[in-house]
Every structure is written in C-alpha cells, then in structure tokens.
Amino acid sequence: MKHADFVHLHVHSEYSLLDGAARLEKLVERAKALRFPALALTDHGNLFGAVDFYTACEKAGVKPILGCELYVAPGSRFERSSQDGGYEGASHCTVLARTRAGYANLMKLVSKAYLEGYYYKPRVDRELLAQHADGLLVLSGCLNSEVSRLLSAGDEAKAQATAGWYQEVFGKDYYFMEVQSHGLEQQVAVTEGTLRIARAIGAPLCGTNDSHYLEADHSRAHEALLCIQTGTTMSDPDRWKFSSNEFYVKSADEMRAVFKDLPEAYRNTLAVAERCNVDLQFGQFHLPKYQVPDGFTLDSYLEERAHEGLRWRYGSSPADAVVERLRYELGVVSKMGFSGYFLVVWDFISYARRQGIAVGPGRGSSAGSLVAYCLGITNVDPIRYGLIFERFLNPERISMPDMDIDFADDRRDEVIRYVVDRYGADRVAHIITFGTMGAKAVIRDVARVLGFSYGEADRIAKLVPSFPLNISLDEALEKAPPLAEQVKRDQRVGEMWAVARALEGCTRHASVHASAVVISDEPLMERVPLYKDPKRPELITGYAMGPIEKLGLLKMDFLGLKTLTVISDALRLVKESRGIELDGDALPLDDARTYQLLAEARTFGVFQLESAGMRDALKRLRPQRIEDIIAMVALYRPGPMDLIEDFVNRKHGRAAIAYEHPLMEQVLQETYGIMVYQEQVMRLAADLAGFSLGEADTLRKAMGKKDRDLMATQREKFISGCKGNKIDGKKAERIWDLIEKFAGYGFNKCLTADTRIEMADGSQKPITEVQAGDLVLTKDGPYRARAVRPSGVRPVGRLRLANGMSVGCTPDHPIFTQRGWVNAGKLNIDDFVAVARELPCGSQTVPDHLPALLGYALSEG
Predict the structure, then answer these.
(1) Are residues 418 and 443 in the same domain?
(2) pLDDT tens-digit profile of 677-714?
(3) Is 4 inside any structural domain?
(4) Cβ-contact 8, 42 below 8 angstroms
(5) Sign of CA dihedral 601, 604, 608, 611
(6) For residue 844, what are the domain limits?
(7) Dist CA 507 CA 496 (whole Å)
(8) Which residues contact 579 (CB under 8 A, 6 or more apart)?
(9) Count of the separate structural domains present in the chain
(10) What pLDDT does 145 receive?
(11) Is 680 part of a structural domain of the chain?
C-alpha cells in the first residue's frame, strides 16, 4: 500500500478534555484509512493518551509521534496574578518528541507544568523549555502561540526575536515555523508575517491543521462539546466556538490544496515525521528497591521471612507437602524476579498490623500463595482451601502480580503515608482515572446545550435501558422501541441524537482512582508524566491504570473497607465493655451459635450476606461450616445463582451426587459435586487431562474471556489429555461439557437443529438460519448474535407436556421445574415444567426496570 505524502503533526484527541472530540482509537483508524505513514498526538497540556495512542498506532501500522501542545507562561511559571492573564495569558507551543530522551524531557515538562506552573492551566516557561530541550522538536504554534500573538499585535520584531530564541534553544534543524489555514481572516496576516520571519532566520516551514475532530460534519458536535465545557448553550451568541468548520483530520489531497502555494510546508511534514523516532519499552518491570539487612539478598531475605512464617502458621514440624509447596513458590517468585515485590507488600502490611490497623484476610488470586500466607500478607490458608498458586503467579506467563489489600477505611490513608515516607514522595503517587460520556450522560449534556429543558432531557435519558451496564446509544435504540420512535419522529430529538452519537464515549474529566497507588524504583517523573488536581493534595500520575501496568510499574490497590472499620470498632467496644481482647484474625470458624444465626438469616449488616435473596438462600442452606458460606457467596451472582437449589438439595441429601469419573470426587466433594470455583476446573484439568497448573490457568483465562475459539482449542487439548490418561473419549466430552457450562452460563450449545429462535421483531427463525448480526430476543432484551456455530451431532430427547407443547433438547439441558433447575435427562413423569405464559411480541410498553422492581416488591411480600 502506497502511503500518503503528508503527516498530521498538530492533532487533538478526547484527552484535550472537552475541547477535542476525536476518540483515540477512531483517530488512529482514520489515519490508517487515509494512508498516513505517521500521526502525531498533541493534546493540550497533557500526555494522558500517549501510551494508548502509541499502542493503537503500532497495531495499525501507523508510526506514532508523541507530542503535546504546551501552555507557555508569559513570564515565570511561578508568577500567579491577574496581570499574568491567567489562561488567556498562556500561549501555545507545539512540541514533539524526537528521541527517547526527548520523550523523557516532554514528561518532565508536562509534570512540572502541573506541579510548579499551574494557574488556570498547566504552564511551562522559557526556563523549563531551555532545561529540557534535548530530544525535542518544536513547531512555532497556532494563532495562540507567542509568535502569532505578537504578529497579530503588530510587533513583528519581537515575534522574530521570539522565534530566534526557540531556534537557538532547540536547534536550527528542530525548530519549524508552523503555518495553518482554516479560512480565518486573522490567519492570512499571521501567515504572511510567519513567512517573513522564516526567511529572516532561515527556519523551515511546516503545515498543520490543528484538528480537534475527525470529519467536517463533526463540527456541530464539537461546538456542543465546547458548550459543555463552558456551561453555555448553542443559542448563546457570545459562546466560545471555533470560527470555521475546518478543524478536522483532512486527507492528504485536502491538505495539498490548503498549501498549494506553500509546497515546502506540505512536504516538510514528512521531514518532521522522519526525525521523530520514539520507541517505548514495554515488558520490563520497575519495582521499588526494598532495602534488605546486611548480608541478605532480596531472595534470601524473602526466604528467611517465609520460613519464619511457615513455623508461625504450621508449627515447628510442618508437613512435607507444605514445605515443598513453599520451596516451589519461592523458586518461582525468585525466577520471575518478584522477591522484592513480596517484601514491599509484607513491609507495609506489617506496619499496618503493628499500628492496629485492620487488614483484610485476602482478596483475589493472591490468597492462593503460601508465601503470602506465611508472610502474613493474607490470612487464608491456601492448603486447607485448595487454592492454586499458579492462578496468582503463572510461571509459564510472566506478568506482574496483582494484590488488592483491604484496610479499615478510616485508616487506609495512614498506610499510604507510610509507603510515601518509606520510598519517597517523588516515587509514590495515586493513579489518574477518567470519566467518559456514557449513553445517558451524553444525552443530558447535549440536550442541555441544545436548549432542551431539564425535564425533557431527563425523560429522554430515562428511556435508555439501565441494563446492560455501559449500554451504547445504538444498543439503546435497538432495545427501547419508545426511544427509537421518538428519535425517528421528533426532528429536535433526532438532531440531538446525532450530536450525542458523535460525542458518546469521549473523555469528560480526569479524577483519582479510588484505591490504586503506584510505587516506583526511580522518581516517577522519569517513568511517567505527573498530574496535579489543584483541589487535591495528592500527587497523581498522568497515565491511567492500563498504561501504568504496561510500562511495568508496581501498582497496588489500597482498598478502604467499611466492614473492617465496623469489625475494629466492635472489637474495641467488646474490650471496653467486657474487658475481653479478641483477635479479629483468629476468631473460630466452627462456632455453633454463629452458624445458628446464619441459618436463621440474621445477617443484616454482614458483608455479602445481608441482601434479601441471600438471606432466603441461607435459610434454605442452613450452613454448618465455613465452606458452605464460601460456596454460597460464589453462587449468589447472575448465572450460577440457578445452581443454588441443586446445591442445597445435594447438601441435605434430597438430590443424588454423582461423578463422571472417580478423580472428580476429590476435587468436587466439598461442593457436593457441583463446579463452583475456577480453581476446581484447574484441578480437574490437571488431574484428568495432565495439564500443568500453568496451562490450567490459561484455560481459566479462556473461560473468563468467554472466547469460543480459545475454548475450542482448550477442548481439544483437554479431551486429548483425558484419553492419554485412559479416560474414555465420550466420558471426556461429557466432563468438558460440564466445564464449558460452568465457564459460560451463556455458552448454551444444546439447542437442536429444529429449534426456532425468537427474533426482536416478534418473528421466528430456525436456529440453522440465524446469522451473526441478526437481532434476536434474549431474556435481557434484543441483542445482535455475535456468532452461530454448529456443535456437532448429539443425542436429543423430546419432552411432551400436558398442554400439548413439546421441547427437543440434549439430556444435560437445564429445565426449570418445581424442584428447581433439573437437567432434562433427569426429569420424572409428573414433574411440573415452567413454560412461557405468553409469546414475546417484540414491543415494550414499560421501562426495563419496572418488571424487576415489581418482582423485588413481590419477593419482599
């Protein structure tokens, strides 16, 4: 493919907050479609999108150029006064990174602009520019640049002196006079002055388009975005808006026409692009340096601490299997280079415990680590509960461990302050996060600026279904016929909808992640740009969670949990009122009176056990051991919730427990033969099919992603492994079907070829005629079919019902009966089977939330 001979070098994305209307991924897609060999990103005052932009460009085969349109203070960046002019006083300067050193300097400039120069906007000054000029290339800027402002004011001599200063600081080869043409009268005079200065100082020209949106017909959406930013409406004649609709990503042909009289400016965009070659390094880890005592290495000190903890947890003579498990885990940790990671976490958790700050028992996959348990990082015995280390740290796939730590919410900040003191205030920061314009929010924003009343905007936004979460505007139209009718029938609403679609998903604001903190081996400014919210005291990264992890920095989640605060307060009150000091980490798990309370569902205020549905399940379950509670928490969520009835019946002997293979019993017996945990599937893959636990973790990930193609590959590997273990092929297939049913609760492959599928319009189609993209009716409303794949030939039974209906399905298809969910092959004559009271007609007369609300009200009596 022949590339275009032009490169856009002055480009704003959604991260020019409420000013840029171009979604990052769409920006790169357009560059690829227009065959640009490279593309720059120059958002206002920040590098928020730099890493995501870089990776998107690399994937698309477009060379990424990292840059920023900096704000430059008229004097010192430390000067903050009304004479300074605030935001209006800061001029613009287009800066591009040429080299890795240039990228590092650009990060420093952006960071110091926030930390030292913030006054309405993050500002640098000439002192900073001179300090951090190495590796950078500068374009003189838009109409708001120093040079252009001076030219507009009629002071060409000072404008030339200013250009000369930049040329001297950044080098003759790396300072270009930027020219633009958006059909503005002011630009004509400025361009003439720019050409004279370029000739006088011998600076090359460079043509740009200062794009703020993707296509010409997005200019109205961009106007609306500016109104959202400024709190004005489109009917306000004094509102801030761009003076033409030319600020979009134009094609090479369009840009050639713009600069037909300045071919040098057009050609030089390629010359600039060729000089910018930044290669970001991913896949390396930059962990903070934990200072071990003299005579120790990180590995040996971790081993010392872990073995000390082993004796604390298991006594002076732990079982050989436990010792071997610890030896294995320490070996993996050492080989992967994460000994320092464990010591860092151990250190701040030890501090919390010394200070009497409540620490959670363990959250997520880290509870599978015996090392973590022996260090006191977690308080869940992975041996007793059959937890798997490889789910936390897979030796076959090197990636940063991920530990989420719960602290009492009223003392969480004390732990973070300790970490800051321990590793340095310049090496610890909170992580930025971004709010985006979701479907309902963008409707309300756009409706307001277009002059809709609050009531009108609210009524239209409420027509957007609340489920699924993060529903798109297009999905909302498909799922809510009243909304679609209004958009089609009412011209005003239709126009609002078009603008909202153009802005949907754009980044709206920056904020601070509720729990994530990054800890670096070097001053963070060397690794990432920094950001400062002028209303908050914390240091914040200018990159969000994804880029932070991609760059190999240590991210920890310091979670504040109210339940831990309540427990701490309860323990304190017991001590004050009864004189009894209890250890919250050592309470017995076999207390009969506690289980009596649970069986009576007296669990108001108990974390995860207090909802009405959960209390009902507890009454039926009548738990007698902690494993029952753990299983119930795992089952009480969409999908596996349907298994609760069977789980309860099996526990109380009302349903038989059977296993396809004897090896399955040792894995599933604690959950009465039902697959409840991903760890159980991993164990089955290892025991039955010979998977290593690392390979079993890959299977787990495939299940979590609901990736059919990857699951198909895993199926073949599983069945082959079972056969190698002398397990009959048909039996292996049945076991896999159980695993796949567990994995998806949506991968229902047991529909027969004569099944007819209800379409969204009320019609029916044979399943063999349904195609990807067809809009089908599901229990959650209309959805487009993503794929339709045959699952082979399987035995099919037919149920004949007393009302004349019949159902064809495989024996393991779940059918809802008066006994709960029962596989079709286990139904008895005279069982009652749930059938639809009426056929769906494809229309909707009430908002989606009302049936759920009615059901909830009925269930509560």
Answers:
(1) no
(2) 889 999 999 999 999 998 998 888 888 777 778 888 89
(3) no
(4) no
(5) positive
(6) 756-859
(7) 19
(8) none
(9) 4
(10) 95
(11) no
